[in-house]
Write a structure and sequence with these properties.
elongated, 175 residues, mainly alpha
């Protein structure tokens, strides 16, 4: 009886014979998507359920927060625009975070959701966290950078976007 040593690196147990590294690469953005989706859903719900946040003034209000960061922000005019209606801006921010989080978590219009998340993070970095010294203490810059891979790659697996692409290919006669 002849015994042979297996020399290939492919495992027949992962994704139809793909190497485990191929599988890891395929799903590499999934943890980032889950983290950002859950975090932004939580942030939106937290703002909507915080009685103090959605007020024009008072401790913990969006209005007082914006007035406090106005002079140290990179773009004071952006803060001034939001200060015209702090409560409305607070609601827009909360619902924007919810929409971004849900879209990202479900993989629904993922690139658009990620672009929304990047824009929210950019606006927060240029206003609220701009004065952080050194700059890397401001977490909004890190969130901005975390959104960029999802803007570029979307959610190719385990997403509603992937389901829609698959159905579209099937209707077109492809696989």
């Amino acid at each position: 009886m002849t015994h042979s040593m297996r020399t290939d690196t492919r495992s027949p147990y992962l994704n139809s014979g793909q190497d485990w590294r191929d599988s890891a690469t395929r799903y590499a953005l999934l943890p980032l998507r889950v983290f950002l989706g859950v975090t932004f859903i939580y942030a939106g719900l937290d703002k909507l359920t915080d009685g103090a946040f959605l007020r024009d003034s008072g401790a913990g209000s969006i209005g007082d927060t914006m007035r406090a960061v106005r002079d140290s922000s990179a773009i004071p005019a952006l803060v001034d625009l939001a200060l015209k209606n702090p409560t409305g801006f607070g609601y827009a921010m909360a619902f924007g975070e919810l929409a971004v989080g849900i879209g990202t978590l479900l993989g629904l219009l993922t690139r658009l959701a990620a672009l929304g998340g990047a824009l929210i993070s950019l606006s927060l970095w240029l206003t609220v966290s701009w004065a952080s010294d050194p700059y890397y203490y401001g977490n909004d810059l890190a969130y901005l950078m975390a959104w960029l891979p999802l803007v570029l790659a979307g959610a190719p697996f385990l997403s509603l976007d992937a389901v829609w692409r698959s159905r579209k290919r099937q209707r077109a006669g492809g696989y």
